[in-house]
From TrEMBL, chain A:
Pfam families: Proton_antipo_M. The chain crosses the membrane at residues 6-23, 30-49, 61-82, 94-112, 118-136, 148-171, 191-209, 230-251, 263-284, 291-311, 317-338, 359-378, 398-418, 439-458. This is Hydrogenase. Keywords: Cell membrane, Membrane, Oxidoreductase, Transmembrane, Transmembrane helix. Residues 116-402 form the NADH:quinone oxidoreductase/Mrp antiporter transmembrane domain. It is found in: Cell membrane; Membrane. It comes from Oryzomonas sagensis. It is a multi-pass membrane protein.
TrEMBL record, chain B:
It comes from Oryzomonas sagensis. It is a multi-pass membrane protein. InterPro entries: HyfE-like. It comes from the Bacteria. The keyword Transmembrane helix applies. It is found in: Cell membrane. Keywords: Cell membrane, Membrane, Transmembrane, Transmembrane helix. Its main location: membrane. The lineage of its organism: Bacteria, Pseudomonadati, Thermodesulfobacteriota, Desulfuromonadia, Geobacterales. The chain crosses the membrane at residues 6-22, 27-46, 52-76, 88-109, 121-139, 148-165, 171-192. This is Hydrogenase.
Length: 477, 214
């Protein structure tokens, strides 16, 4: 069953490659997305398999990530049909293939318990998205693609070195070498602390680059700013979360080693630094797509802080996996529409979306509220749990810092979002041929609805899944 | 490990310095190819010959010795550029930095808690020195193609460390990692072409359109 999750998108990519027509090709993606989503729901709902493979083992964390990625991809897939219709002059073969290969790699990343294979899957997601950042074929996008490709490649290479350190620590300890999660968790108390710490640091740097934690985030505003909206949605909602999955796996091993102070302190430090950087750059950000990139840095920082806090924050981190992914989908897809409607992504020229493209404007505003943790949306619950964890588990300073930095980020984003949504449309700019169509506003609306519904009422199966996932990150007793 | 393998690692270290010091991209590409092939042969020298090891050797030699240089030369031939862009710090500065990094790698590696049978080997210091040299090239070079070569040096350094663990890495993952490396170089090659077309030079320090204003 799990193999199919990887094979369906690969087959979709091959079919997209074979179809010659630029107009018909995008329809492959919704078909792939529906099959994938149906299969994911079936797998998550089915009772766990008895015969567990050591390499492939879909645990609760993987299931949550799969649900999120599949839903996000489905939204992007339907959106892309209409979006690519607007951009008929561009060949979309590479885009259709890259999106689906990326989905296959992310599905694989959700289910593997072999550190080497997981690295491979994450590396493949990076590669498959590189040509997509360059979709617009201009000087700015080539610069963004180059930065993305080089910085992420170097980062992911350092992650490989971290994995080698991990394997070498088993050699030094005189244990049979292994890169599988469960044996490594068993070995962890006996692994030499120096090598395990080194492995953690390199993997934190490597996957942190992929997630875009400060100060490793420098590629992010460029890539997110220049990529088309739907590619940005996949980057921010899919790939960034995928890097977090990589970080979670090494964190699980480190947890089993017994002494977790170093790891928690490192995660809290890099997380707070990311929040600080994001807050600083969100104020006075005139480009609303770059603003979304800094918002992504902020939420990746929250992930790191949550792992650092542990305890009650873990439940929130698992909820945030869904919340961040889907809210980024809403924002980037709506931002893509606004970009089309004004042929600009600057808040000085793209003003008053409510009059030009009312649906997209409303979605952008609602997505902003969802992203910044306003009730009733899901992120309110996850951020609430971070505060509870910080103040009840003996980190009041972290709690206050979180409060201040999230407030600054909220105000900073509002200063960009509000003029874009409510401002007076510029008179001197010609109206573009963009109009809101059902396929351009339906998918983000669907994601927003999920965020709202789940924020108010979390269905029992999902609640159990989130708790099971958080339990995997508790310190083993 | 045989002393022959250690001698080859010395050759690898010399190639690092050569790449840091040369101003010709063609020389650097050939040097990185030679380095890749030398490293590809290493598993054969330090492990008893098995099918698994032979396959890895074959993959690595083909990938690093043939495939990647071919892709890089392909990228190079499509852009005509005559201008010489000295790296930050200059060529001499690069060589000195590379030498200092090599010494530091040896000093640092001597303090690492290695497994007893790895204490005497050159493998760990050579790996660290090559990784650092890769970083120096990445940080100081301005031409896109030389940055790719720096990235390849970094990868080679990581590969050297991996020599200690050939038993632990399954063949599938090794092959996949190489495949990803080739695909990555392929994509970078395409991007270099586009940079050449778009900026009529592959000087990445001219790419400054994307900055935070203010």
């Amino acid at each position: 069953m799990f193999t199919l999750l990887v094979l369906i998108p690969v087959a979709g990519a091959l079919i997209a490659w074979l179809i010659p027509s630029n107009v018909k090709r995008p329809w492959v993606m919704p078909v792939t997305a529906c099959l994938h989503l149906a299969l994911v729901v079936a797998i998550v709902a089915a009772p766990p398999l008895q015969s567990r493979n050591e390499w492939i083992d879909l645990d609760a964390i993987g299931k949550l990530f799969l649900l999120e990625v599949s839903a996000l991809f489905a939204a992007c897939a339907f959106y892309s049909v209409s979006y690519l219709h607007y951009r008929r002059e561009r060949n979309n073969r590479v885009l259709c293939m890259g999106m689906q290969v990326c989905l296959a790699a992310m599905s694989l990343a959700a289910g593997v318990h072999h550190m080497g294979l997981l690295w491979l899957a994450i590396e493949t997601t990076t590669l498959s998205m590189a040509p997509l950042v360059y979709f617009n074929r201009n000087a700015r996008s080539i610069e963004a693609t180059w930065k993305y490709m080089l910085i992420c490649s170097v980062g992911i290479a350092l992650a490989l070195l971290g994995i080698f350190f991990l394997a070498y620590s088993t050699v030094v300890a005189g244990l049979p070498p292994s890169l599988l999660l469960e044996p490594l968790q068993g070995y962890a108390p006996r692994l030499p602390a120096g090598w395990l710490d080194a492995a953690f640091v390199f993997l934190l740097v490597g996957y942190g680059t992929k997630m875009g934690l400060a100060p490793l985030h420098t590629w992010k505003p460029d890539a997110y700013g220049e990529a088309p909206g739907l590619v940005g949605a996949m980057l921010a909602g899919g790939l960034a979360n995928c890097g977090f999955i990589g970080l979670i796996r090494i964190y699980q091993i480190c947890l089993s080693s017994g002494d977790v102070h170093f790891y928690r302190a490192a995660l809290l430090g890099i997380g707070l630094l990311s929040l600080f950087t994001a807050a600083a750059f969100l104020v006075h950000q005139t480009d609303f797509k770059r603003m979304l990139a800094y918002s992504s840095v902020e939420h990746m920082g929250l992930f790191a802080v949550a792992l650092g806090l542990g305890g009650k924050a873990l439940y929130g981190a698992m909820l945030h996996l869904i919340g961040n992914g889907l809210a980024k989908g809403v924002l980037f897809l709506a931002a893509g529409n606004i970009h089309r409607a004004f042929a600009s992504k600057n808040r000085d020229s793209a003003r008053g979306t409510l009059r030009r493209a009312p649906w997209s404007g409303a979605l952008f505003l609602a997505g902003f509220l969802a992203m910044t943790g306003s009730p009733p949306f899901l992120i309110f619950s996850s951020e609430y749990s971070f505060f509870v964890a910080a103040f009840t588990q003996g980190y009041p300073l972290v709690g206050w810092l979180l409060a201040v930095l999230l407030m600054v980020a909220f105000l900073g984003m509002a200063m960009t979002v509000l003029p874009v949504v409510f401002g007076e449309p510029p008179r001197n700019r010609e109206r573009t041929k963009y109009r809101d169509t059902p396929l351009l506003v339906g998918p983000p609306l669907a994601l927003l609805t999920i965020l709202g519904v789940v924020g108010v009422w979390l269905p029992q199966p999902l609640y159990r899944l989130v708790n099971a996932a958080a339990a995997l990150l508790e310190v083993a007793r | 490990m045989s002393s022959f393998a250690d001698q080859l690692l010395v050759l690898v270290l010399l190639i690092n310095i050569l790449i840091l010091g040369t101003h010709r991209a063609r020389v650097a590409i050939r040097a990185i190819a030679v380095q890749g092939v030398v490293l590809g042969m290493m598993p054969l020298l330090i492990h008893p010959v098995q099918g698994h090891i032979l396959l890895i050797t074959l993959f690595v030699v083909l990938a690093k010795g043939v495939c990647i240089p071919w892709l890089l030369f392909g990228a190079l031939s499509k852009i005509e550029f005559s201008e010489d862009l000295p790296p930050f710090l200059g060529y001499a500065g690069n060589v000195i930095a590379g030498a200092v990094a090599t010494v530091m790698a040896f000093v640092f590696a001597a303090r690492l808690p290695l497994a007893p049978h790895h204490q005497e080997l050159l493998t760990v210091p050579a790996a660290l020195a090559t990784i650092l040299a890769g970083f120096i090239a990445l940080a100081s070079r301005r031409k896109a193609i030389n940055q790719v070569i720096g990235y390849l040096m970094l990868e080679n350094g990581i590969f050297i460390f991996g020599l200690l663990l050939t038993e632990a890495m399954p063949l599938m993952v090794e092959a996949g990692a190489l495949l990803d490396l080739i695909a990555g170089i392929f994509v970078m090659g395409i991007i270099i072409n586009q940079i050449g077309r778009e900026f009529s030079s592959i000087d990445t320090s001219r790419m400054t359109a994307l900055r935070e204003e203010e």
